[in-house]
Structure formats: structure tokens, C-alpha cells
Structures
1.
Amino acid sequence: KACLAAEGKVGLMMNVRRVDLEAVVGVLPALQTPTVSALADEEWVDVNSIVEESVVRSIVPKLKMAGARGIVEYAINKIID
């Protein structure tokens, strides 16, 4: 079941200035809510989210416009709920 749940989904992680966080999170069609982690520079956070692979191409430009930087897409093997 975990492998089936991951089918068609990818992970996105990116760096975001805290002042842009709300705008970036508003673009993400997250599986639940994105994970937001502090970075060494207190003005920046890391945002990590699971999204449908089919939407990545359309949301990456929107994420960049909202303030996301260093966007990385990665494969998901399993989602264990």
C-alpha cells in the first residue's frame, strides 16, 4: 500500500525567506501541510512538500515568483501513513 500511495508523487524542497513563506506555501498543493525547517540564516527556512508529479511543471514558475529558491525535485519510494 505504501508504494501505491507514493505512485505519481514527488517531493519538492526549497529555500524560502521567512517574509515569502506564506506566499510560497499558498502555491503548494501539499499532501498535508508542508514541513518548514529553520536554516542557519534566521531569515531563511527550508520548505519540504509532497506533490503530484503532474503539477510540478506548472507550479515551479509560481514558486519562483513567490520567492522560492534552490528548488529540488526528488523521487518518493513510499508514503507510510
Note: The chain has a mean pLDDT of 91.
2.
Amino acid sequence: MGNRQACTNPRKSHIAFPNIHIRELFGSIEAELADVDDYLQKSVSQANYLIKDGFNYLLQAGGKRIRPAFTLFASHYGSKTSCIPAASTMELVHMVSLIHDDVIDASDLRRGKATLSNLYGNNYAIHLGDYLFAKALAVIDSYQNTALSGKLAYTSREMCRGEIEQISNELCLQQNIKRYLYRVNRKTSVLITLCFETGALVSGANQEVVNTLGRFGHYLGMAFQIADDMLNYTADEQTLGKPVGNDLQQGVVTLPLIYFLKYGKTELCQDVKRILKKETVTTDEVVYINQAIRVSKAIEYSQELVNRYAIKALQQVDKLPDNKTTEVFRQIALLYYQEK
């Protein structure tokens, strides 16, 4: 087994925003990730030009291919080959979720470029997303693996539940941490969990490894999303690839704001609540709220929770066979651990 000190005394990470740098750990699977892009391109080669135009725009818009990478790495624990279709499917599901998110949020930008709904309209974007999800279902069905199909169905339901919960809780300033974590699990962590389980299942890994990778994916996904939510209060527009304060202006309440409203100075919290209850939050008000949150303990508290999930992820890594892929997983989890 690997170095057990990793889960009890993680080293200090020097990386401020881990999800920006995670791609640096994918060197050993770059060729496979290129195959994923080729597979995605070919998946619509026979489709109507209207479908191809929109999908090609999405592919060219970029993306770190994090989810297919997790799937490919997980497949290294089995003996079967050809995980490319399954890995590509995980990217399709992720792309669909982004398309629908941008429609719901009326977002103009994604990764610094115009969103599909901005270019083609909401109706087109929604139907292209549905088309791509149907493609994903067909690919998974081709594996003729009941467990895999069931996991995709469960994940899809949970992602929808997470989105519905987020919509129903817009600007609900009484949200507690437990409710927020449920939403993070459903909106983000369940898909990352599925990526690890899918790679292991299609490669024929034993059930113990499948379960361990699933738990690792869950904890990593929780750390991943909380860290991403922190970026909305600490990063600039170039880093985010979308306007600063987009979550606030959409009424999305995330962990830094929850912590701030619970532990911040009473007078300042009341002022922030007053602003957020307005029909429109201005850019200057977003800057004011971000500054208030940054000078409070909210970001520090949020990072402490990220650290706890990172440690839980590392504990799962220690249960995996000691090989190069396991070490990559260790390094990925360590990216999220930051000491004071």
C-alpha cells in the first residue's frame, strides 16, 4: 500500500486554486484524452449540420476534460481495455449539465467565451443538450452492464434534484451547511463519483476497488466543488471564465456566504442581507460583498471543510493497490489540502 502518512499529515499545498492546475497531473493519459476528443468529434459526424455546428463549438470552447480523465485513470485498475467510449460519455453528461445551467442562469459567458444559449438561443441549447444526453445513454447501454446503466440513471436523477433544489433555494439566506452539502453532492459530486466507478466497472476491476474509487470520487467531488465556490469570492473574471459575482447575482447561496452570515459581524451581515434582498444586485455591490466575505473568516472556514474532504479522499487512496495511478490520485487529493 501507499504512504499512510499522507492521510494523517498531508503536506502543505502551494496551489491556490487546484482545479486550474489539476490538468498538470494528466501527463500519462494525454494520448487517451486525445482519443476522447476524437471519439466525441466522430460521435456527431453523421448528424445534421445544425447539431454538428453547436457541438463542435462546444468542443472548441475548451475544457480540462477532468471527468473523462478520472474515468480513464480508474480503468487502470482492471484488465479490460477500451474505456474511451465510457470516458467520452462522462464528458457528454458534464457538457449537458453546463448547457442547461447556462440556460437556467441566463449566462452569457462560459470559460471566457459566449455560451451556446447566447449564440443559438435557449430552445436550441436545451434540445442539443437533450440530444447529447440521449447519445450518452446509448453509449452506456452498449456496454450491456446493468450496474453501470443503473448508476448513470441514479446520477442523472440526483443532478436534476440538485438543480431543482438550487432553484427553489435562490436567495434563501437561512440555508444551513447541511442543505448546502446535499446540493453540492447532487450537482457535482455524484457525477465525479460516477466517473471513477464507470472506469473501474468497464475495465473489470474487482468490486472492492469499484467501491473504494466511488468513495474517493465522492470526497474529491465535494472538495472540488467547495473550492470552486470559494473562487467566486476570491478570483478575478479571467480566472473564473465568467463575470465575478455571477453566483450572487443569480441568487445562488454557497458556503462562504453561509459561513459569513452565520459568523460575520452582525451589522455587516445585516447590510449584506439588505443588498441581497433587492431585485437587482449591482456590480459595485458584488465587489462590496466579496470584500466583506474575504476579510471575514468565511474563506478560512470553507477551506477547513475542503481540507476535511481532502483527508477523507486520501484515506480512500490508502486502500487502493500501490501503483502509479494511485499516486496520481494521492497528488490530486493533496492539491485541495491547504494549511494555514
Note: The chain has one domain: 5-148+169-335.
3.
Amino acid sequence: MKKLFIVSVCCFVSLMRFACSYELPIIEESLTCQIEIQIQKPVYETFQVMVFLHGAQDLGLRSIHPAVFEHWLEKGYAVAAISMPGYGNSTGERDFSGPNTLDALHISIDRIKEELAVPKLGMIGFGQGGLAATLLSAQRGDIACVVSSNGGYDLLRHNASDDILRSILENKKYQLDLTSEEDLIVRSPLYHVSEMSAPLFLLHRKGNPIVSEQEAVDFHDAMLAAGKECFLVIKDKTPTDDEQQLSFEEILIEAESWIDEQMGRG
């Protein structure tokens, strides 16, 4: 059965000068679901590519503020975003960065690379998008760098009945068995450190009630112990944000120069 693979390629004009806007629907036979992708490209002949993965917002890629894309476009990057299965206009089951999500992301990344004719790309993920991007680094050799903002790294720490993340996954009916060690490990970067290929930059907030600071520290330390390149920045707790999310401005302050260096623009 053929499934619709939607690619919204938007090299758009507003007050910026880098070009035109169009949408390209593609029929992709190998997909088991419909995946929503947005691509924005500068007019330059050569450019690097940043791919963004959203968090738990139902809107999928539309939950990422347009200013995020505009910032990187103005720097001369091409940008792309993917709605993971079950989010935005993507169909399929939400499995919290499990096999279904990663399969869809693999196909989406291949399509992005084909559309933009690039050999590598960088990734920035928010929340579960950070988890997915980190896991992809263990499965692909064409990711130049990953920034994970408030990601999770060890789901085995969340199997207690009163754990906040476990409650969220149960209430939102994600497709995974929370009693299965195998299901939790396959979604936990901590147990795939040896396969990690890309340099990682982890940003985390003190007081994050869902994923503890220590979980991020332990993953960072495991990466270093394995001889992998990994940086960790833990931002101070803020009194106004219950979930202790990180703003895009904070990500830029901490990681932008590192991203440019990893992408060959430093």
C-alpha cells in the first residue's frame, strides 16, 4: 500500500531575501505512515543543514517557533523539521522515540538529504525530540552533531509507579510496555553509548521534575568514559517555569558557536 509522504519545502520570502515558497507532496511506498516534513533553504549554492525535532506538543513541527528557523536561515543554513508519528499532520502511533518513531525519522532524514543534496546534517531536539536525536546518533553515521535540550537518557529510572514521566506516558497512551526492560532500554541512550557516532551537546535545567539533573550527568559521564565527545550545560532553575524548559535563546547562548564549529563554520 502506498502512503502519502508530505514534504513542505518552504524557501520563503518575507522581509528576508532568500527566496520563494512551494509545497511538494511525494508518494513514498516504503512508509507505514504519513510523515510531515518542512524544509527551508537559502539561495546559496552551498549550505549546512539543521534538523529540528519537537517535544510533546500535539502540533508537532508547528510547535517550533518560526524565529528558530529564521535565525538559522539568516546564518546561511538550510533548516528542516519533522513531525514525529502521531504529532502534527503525521499519522502512526506515538511510541516515545521507539522503533516506529525512529524508522519514520530515518526515512525522513534520507528524504531531507536527497532534497538538499547534502552528505551530513546537524540536529537540535527538544524534550523527546532530544531523546530521538540522541538515539539516531547511535544508528546513523551522517549526523554531524546533536543538541539535546531537556532530553531523557535512561528510562529504567522511570519505572516506579509514582514517577512523573511514567504517569505521562501512561495517561497519553504511548505505545510502549512500561513494565518491559527491553522496551525501556531500546529508548535509553545510556545503554547505547558505544554506538554513538556524533558529538553531543546536552542542555538541562536544574529542578526539571520529569528528568533529573543526575540522569543527564550520568549519561554525560558515560559518554566521556567511552571516549565520546559530549558536553553538558546545566542551567539554573527558574521560579516561573513549572516544567523547567529551556528557551531557544538559552540554547543559542550555550551551543550556537559549538554547532557552527561542528558544522564546519567555526
Note: Residues 99-116 form the longest helix (18 residues).
4.
Amino acid sequence: MKSIVYSTLPFLHLTPLKAVKECLAIGADKVEVFMEGPSWSRMTDEMRRDLADELLQLPCQYSVHPPQFDLNLASDWQSVREAAIEEYKKAIHFAGLINASHIVIDPGYRHLPLSSLKEARESAKRGIESLLTDAERWSVLIGIENGPVTQKLLFNEEEYVAFVKSFNHPMIGAVLDTGHARLAKWDISGVIDRLGVSLLAVHLNDTSGRVDNHLPLGSGVIEWKKVFQALKYLTYEPDLVLELNTETSPEALRESSDYIQSFMRER
């Protein structure tokens, strides 16, 4: 099986470089760089280039998770959509500088029920399509992630799979977040099966079933045996990314990694 990928999410209190080094100290050989928090929001283009140079010196491969908390490709507001596209393009550029395999893109949310679901989906699709030129230039795949908030989601599980596949483009695939899927009451193993080769990565985290709390694996309500059985049936191996919350200790990360490997070794 592939090595476990570690997200820097638990280490957002550190500088980005130190966060990656923490992941390496745990045993990572691939890290997903999570671009949230003041270290990132205050970073100039020159600082990003310098950081990229430093990251390339480390014995590590990368994927990139851009900022998403304040961005929305599906917003009713054109200025908000344009801001999201601009930030995502900057993140793709950074991903290219560090030779990242893929970037995680949130298609956005519909915050008010009175907003048109059809228009929100169309805005999300146009926004993602507008990123393709940059993604191709930098050889960075786009992974569309599922969200956690059921009443604001653009898609149910069938619609999400159909949305990903509707692009019919080799640069676009899916990133399935297990905690988000469980909160939305999706059949996680079924979604894995239906996505097939479109599945670039899986964000592995558990949940209490009530909030998106990115718990260590086995401490929430997800039925992990079914999830890992579905992953083993795939004809290839997507990235398995441990994306745990900011309260997670290095020891808890190691325990979750061991938890994954114990399931993946089972026949």
C-alpha cells in the first residue's frame, strides 16, 4: 500500500516550514500543505517563492489544500467568486513550484435556500473550469472535495459523483473527505466505488456524527472496515491523507496511521 500522507492541519500554529518538518518527523514522505491561518494570509508572493525553495530541499512530496473558509466559488456575489478564483490560481502556482501532485478545490456552498441551486452549481463548474489553464501549465491535478454542511451543499452523493465526472477532463478528479461524507449521511464505500479512477485522494478523519471535528480514526462513528474494504477493491491506490484537527498530537497521528495500516493489511 501507499505510504500515509499527512496534512499539516494539526500544525497550523507553526510556520508552514516547521509544520512540514513535524510531519516528516512522524514518518511522512508525502505531506498535504494546508494553506490556512495567519502565516498564509500574510504571505507575499515573494515569501511563497522562498518557502517553495525551502520545501523543495526536504525529502518530501506534496499535495496542496488552498484556503477555503472565506472562499466560495458558488456565491451569489460575483466579487466573492472572483476572489476565490484568484486565490485558487495563486495556490495552483504555489503547488506547481513545489511539484505537488494535486490541489484540493471546494466547489462552494449555497448559504441561502432562496438562492438558485442550478446557478450555484453552474458558478462552481465555471469557476473550476477557469482554473484548468493554470493547472495544465503547472501540471497540477484538481481534486474536487465534498463539503460537510448538508443544508448548504450543492450536491447529494450521486450528484457529487456526476459533477466530478461531468468535466470529463484528465486534470480533474475527486477528493473524498470521510468526515464530511458521514455528516451528510453518504454511503462512503458506495461513493468510493462509483468514483473509481476519478478518486485522487481520500481525506481520512472521523466524526462524532454531529459536527465536522476531524477526529482521530476510530474515535467517532464512521464504520472504517467498510471504507477500507472499498479502497482495497480499487484497481489503483489514491492518496490516503490523514487530515485531523488542530488539537491532534503527533502521537495521535501515529496511532491513526497504524489504525489505517492495520485495516489495509487485512485480506
Note: The two ends are 13 Å apart (CA to CA).
